[in-house]
Amino acid sequence: MDPFHRKFTDCIPSGRILLKIRQRFRDVQVQKNKQFFLTLLANGQQPLQHVKEGHIYQQLDHFNRQNVNTFPQRFFVNEAYWQRPDGPVFLFIGGEGPIYDFDVLAGHHVDMAKEHRALLVAVEHRFYGDSINPDGLKTENLADLSSQQALADLAVFHQYISQSFNLSCRNTWISFGGSYSGSLSAWFRGKFPSLVYGAVASSAPVKAKLDFAEYNNVVGSSLKNEAVGGSEKCQAKVREAFVLVEAALLGGNLTKLAVDFGCCQTPRNPDDQGELMLSLADIIMGTVQYNEEGVLMSIKELCSVMTDKSEEEDAYSRLVKLSQIYRSTSEEPCLDVSHEKAVNDLMDTSHKKRRRAERQWTYQTCTEFGFYQTCEDATCPFSGMLTLQAQTKLCTKVFGISQHSLPARIAFTNSYYGGDNPHTRRVLYVNGGVDPWKELSVVQDSGEEARTVFIKETAHCADMSGERLMERHSLRKARQEIENRVARWLRTAALEKMNKRGAGL
Questions:
Q1: Which runs of E-coded beta strand occur in 179-283?
Q2: What beta strand segments (E) does 203-306 contain?
Q3: pTM of the entire structure?
Q4: Which residues face 53 on adjacent strands?
Q5: Is 146 assigned a catalytic role?
Q6: Which residues of 289-302 are buried (b: 16+ CB within 10 A; e: fewer)?
Q7: Which residues, listed in sequence order, are joined to residue 93 by a DSSP beta bridge?
Q8: Cβ proximity of 267 and 338 under 8 Å
Q9: Active-site residue, selected from the candidate residues 14, 147, 179, 465
Q10: Which of 41, 79, 239, 328 is 20 to 30 A from residue 259's alpha carbon, by CA?
């Protein structure tokens, strides 16, 4: 498989910088895939001729039959490899962002679809990308944005595709997703087991958690993991750098801080100072989460900057250098640390903002998941200014959701889906060893109920790419395990159908 065949995965953000790193990851991969497909076109191939885009009008509220309002849900279909009429169906589930035609053209699930002659379908999540009404971002309308409604969308979409392609019980459905959409893949199998036979859930945080302190604890341990280029010294230098930045804030050296880190504004009030600390932490979080994915830098490269013996610089100056690398690679003239601007961006309900996803995803964290990446215990390598209180107050300020209601909302999510002990058969959970999100996923086998693949030195959703020329042996081995499991599901499904026919059922 060409190295440019890379899967776009919706990976859950923290602050604005991590969100921008995530978006840059997607943009880079879209561009690379476009270049690759232009090469195919130049060679006389037509990779897009079998791909069709469509829309299905879904109910806004599946659980209130008196509400007849709808929204258009976008999807893609690729029939290129499908063996009619009985070939399987591979469903790629969209997460907190737009889907692309490449979601049915590139990635590990597409490689497996070729082998098993599957029909490929990808469906966009409600309220993200183009699957939203013009007034969808208004707070009162976001009430219809939830994972439960999204799963009901998938059930209706399953029926729509089955009717459109004359599918029957002979067609075995397998679902795929990564990060939040990986959770949806697992939950779809759990809540609608008659519709989907097996599910692959890559880097799926199936356990909701209000205070996700473990995220930054894993970031810290990854910074000292020698297998991926980290070291004890690297982690110590990062920790020291944040102590020095905090000391500069306490010392009132605000203008110098703003100049050193290239801030768009001087962080004079506590909220802006918190934004600066979050932005600097995000640069390191993003590096760890997307390690070796070619987005910003790798852990090895980051640690080289923080521990370079040839440079007589203190840890503060090395963190300044990391922020310069971020700004140059992201082509940002300055680091925006205005908390007021961040809040205003989240409160923007104009239709043009729909594809950026910050408002929608923040709403889901407030109403369902939490996932707040805090730094209030001693093991965190960043600043204690990254508090739960600072993050959850946005729920009240932006959406009018009481901070006190969050624990009950998150407890409901875990009781509804089962948390990280879901008791769902034929779900394969895939996680990377340096991925902080593994802490909220399923990482140990429990018989047939939950099967796992653990890739020791890889990051978030790395398994979802097609095979690349330069990659770790552990990643190739993991893909082989995934392929074997999917093949076993399809064989088992075929045997069950034969036995039913033999029994006259």
A1: 198-202, 209-211
A2: 209-211
A3: 0.93
A4: 76
A5: no
A6: bbbbbebbbbbbbb
A7: 123
A8: no
A9: 179
A10: 239
